[in-house]
Amino acid sequence: MPVYKDEKKGTWFVSIRYVNWKGERTRKLKRGFKTKREAQEFERTFLLKESKNLDMLFKDFVDLYLKDCSHRLKENTIQTKEYIIETKILPYLGDKKINEIKANDVIEWQNTMLAYRDDKGEPFSPCYLKTLHNQLSSIFNYAVRFYDLPSNPARTVGNMGKEKGKEIEFWTREEYLKFSEAMMDKDVSFHAFEMLYWCGLRVGELLALTPSDFDFEKETVKISKSYQRIKGRDVITSPKTEKAIVRLSCLIFWLKKCRIIFHVYMAGKIMQEFS
Description:
Layout: E1 3-6, E2 11-19, E3 25-33, H1 36-50, H2 58-69, H3 75-93, H4 103-115, H5 126-147, H6 153-157, H7 173-183, H8 187-199, H9 203-207, E4 214-215, E5 220-221, E6 226-230, E7 233-237, H10 252-258, H11 261-274
Antiparallel strand pairs: 1-2, 2-3, 4-5, 6-7
């Protein structure tokens, strides 16, 4: 048994020799377990994951799912997934074995989500309920595709909620012009909002702009990155959509005449500090 006690520290450790996905013999060493039972549980879970054996707890399989997603999705997307999974799914299904979760378990989970009310007595929105179900279904789909789970119980049950969210409100041209007139005395903010409205930028795209993104000869502005604040860190990522990478602005001639490239850049820096 690859579970041993560190007599000096009084803790337990695991030393496992196994064959990885490359066919290479390797070793896994994990120290610091307070009890032998904790060390044995780690050993069991680790070997199940390595062998792709679905006789594991749902929460342990989620670790595999998120680890794979972390190499394919943006950090903010992963953060959203983690929040939904940790707060809305694992508390109800985490301690069940993934290959033993049935359609009725998913129905009970759905009923719990449907019955939820916040401190103001408000339920989850139909759009959010659909998002929760889609995330659960995504985990099972991953298990079906890559770990040979026979079927997706969330798909069997069917979705909850509705795809259509709240109606999006936007400013008409007349409304924006009225707003911009009131902002004219705030030079930096005014130019920032001009870029947002007339160029169709997202806030994160504006915050990521630098002088090198402007080409006054071709009269274009390149939107190739986006700024985000994630867990106290400044993070620059690609835009939300691929189209944003090649999006050109017909408003650049206005910027050229006004010579406000510096102000636009500074607007982004200032807004970044307050985001």
